[in-house]
Amino acid sequence: MDTTYKSLRIEKADGVAEVILQGPGRGNAMGPDFWREMPEAIRALDEDESVRVVLVRGNGDNFTYGLDLMGMMESLGPLLTGDTNLALERTKLLKLIGDMQQATEGVARCRKPFIAAVHGWCIGAGMDLIAASDFRYCSRDAKFSLREVKVGIVADMGALQRLPRIIGEGHTRELAYTGGDVDAERALRMGLVNDVFPSAEELLTHARATARRIAENPPLVVQGAKQVMEYCADKSTSDGLRYVAVWNSAFLQSHDLAEAFSAFAERRPPKFVGR
């Protein structure tokens, strides 16, 4: 049974969960509901053994317009314009930012891989969200903008930390300093997306097919690959090799490994169950 949220919708089938951004702000803007609900949704998906991969996309004509500034004023306003605006307000703002970061950090920490399918605009916090995803596809009409600088904010939901690993320091600094727009073709050239598709419909068809292919693989192995890669992101090669050696020493023996050998010997498709 699907859980009901205000800012997103979750649909599950055949090992794939789709997280659909849906507002309630214009352009699926990320307001208080999103920052509260997304971490809850990620935790639930992480614990749901029927879910093997997550596809995140936007409802309507866009992925997301990013942070809903007006919607967040009830939370942010008193901390930015209070009578004292000293240590107490600074401490509360620090906590608020940390709580909001769980919406994107949770994507990276979730054991299940996340695929971002972007059509239309992906602005500001939307960039943080897709940067935390494992990889990204987009349609030809997609446009990307790390636009926080235009509203007097240093991007603080993970894009500045993750994008350099994806598109390099130079591209990231250009996007962060200018707040400019990037079209789909340039996003492909810089490595922000893995592929571009002619329409939103073809994008979704391909993204779903990829998600299903991932879901057909041994789920614990897929999750292990993600966790090993997340660990290795800021480690040396030797540290990473040691980590994966220990990982496989602990987890290599499994029902799915035996099933892989049996299916190969019997010349049939394997059926992996995550044991």
Descriptive account of the structure:
This protein is of the alpha/beta class. It has 2 domains: 8-215, 2-enoyl-CoA Hydratase, Chain A, domain 1; 219-266, no CATH class. It is 52% helix and 15% strand. The protein has 11 helices and 9 strands. A 6-stranded mixed sheet has the order 1-2-3-4-6-9, sandwiched between helices. Strands 5-7-8 form a 3-stranded mixed sheet. The chain is globular, with a radius of gyration of 20 Å. The mean pLDDT is 90.
Annotate the secondary structure layout.
Blueprint: E1 8-13, E2 16-21, H1 32-47, E3 53-58, H2 69-81, H3 87-109, E4 114-118, E5 121-123, H4 125-132, E6 135-139, E7 143-145, H5 159-167, H6 169-178, E8 181-183, H7 184-190, E9 195-197, H8 200-215, H9 219-232, H10 237-251, H11 255-266
Question: What tags apply to this protein structure?
Answer:
single chain, 275 residues, alpha/beta, 2-enoyl-CoA Hydratase, Chain A, domain 1, 2 domains, six-stranded mixed sheet, three-stranded mixed sheet, 11 helices, 9 strands, 52% helix
What is the count of helical runs? 11
Instruction: Compute the separation of the termini in Å.
Output: 24 Å
Helix vs. strand class: alpha/beta
Order of helices and strands: EEHEHHEEHEEHHEHEHHHH
Q: Could you say how many structural domains there are in total?
A: 2
- Please tell me what the overall shape is: globular
Quick structural overview:
The chain has 275 residues and is of the alpha/beta class. It contains 11 helices and 9 strands.
